[in-house]
Amino acid sequence: MEAVEGAGLAMQRTKEEGEEMMGKNEMKVMVALDESGESFYALKWALDNLFGITGAVTPGTSDRGAGTVTLVHVQQPFQHFVFPAGPGGAAFYATSSVEQSIRKAQEENSAALLSRALQICKDKNVKAETLVLTGDPKDMICQAAEQMHMDLLVVGSRGLGKIKRALLGSVSDYCAHHVQCPIIIVKPPPKQHHTKQ
Questions:
Q1: Is the pTM of this model over 0.85?
Q2: Mean per-residue pLDDT, 170-191
């Protein structure tokens, strides 16, 4: 096993897997995105480090030839919440119009997020496609990577502390243990401490 580390990256692969990935004409990379700045940092890191410098051409190819990026965003499924309606403990379920409004807002949010990500890819001259899924992000990302036979999964890390990670769970941690392809977890850049003078 060869360990590759750098810029907050943790990935392990066998030498044969690395040679197989590099020998392919086109590498299939999936980048998981959410509303966080960390996921967009991971996308930019992947484009810069896996697909080279903007405008660079891989020798012997007409374009960059590095591969395709699949941008995946997972929406949380709609839950029919129960709201207490009065002191008697009566329950209120969301009406179909409320449900439709929430779903429409989710779709608009996903479209805006993926449009921003597609523009970043376009600016770097990297081919990209989008995928919107509904469900638990941890499971859906791993399933999509496996079903689409991805060569590599890139996820951002929010840098949760031990307590938050234990209570909330970490998508990147879960994917690192369950996804079938190699994974790169991109840690956020160190925070700049500004001192007042």
A1: no
A2: 88
Q: How far apart are CA 119 and CA 108, in angstroms?
A: 16
**How does pLDDT run across 46-84, given as a tens digit for each residue?**
999 998 654 443 433 434 445 889 999 999 887 655 555
The total of structural domains in the chain comes to 1
Establish if 89 belongs to a structural domain. no
35 found inside a domain: yes
Other beta carbons less than 10 A from residue 116's beta carbon: 13
Q: How far apart are CA 2 and CA 15, in angstroms?
A: 6
Provide the pairing of β-strand 91-93 with 82-84. antiparallel
3 state SS for 41-64: HHHHHHHHHHCCCCCCCCCCCCCC
We report the CATH number of the domain holding residue 171 as 3.40.50.620
Residue 22 confidence (pLDDT) above 60? no
For 22, the domain range is 2-77+109-186
| Lowest-confidence pick of 66-70, 100-104, 119-123, 163-167 | 163-167
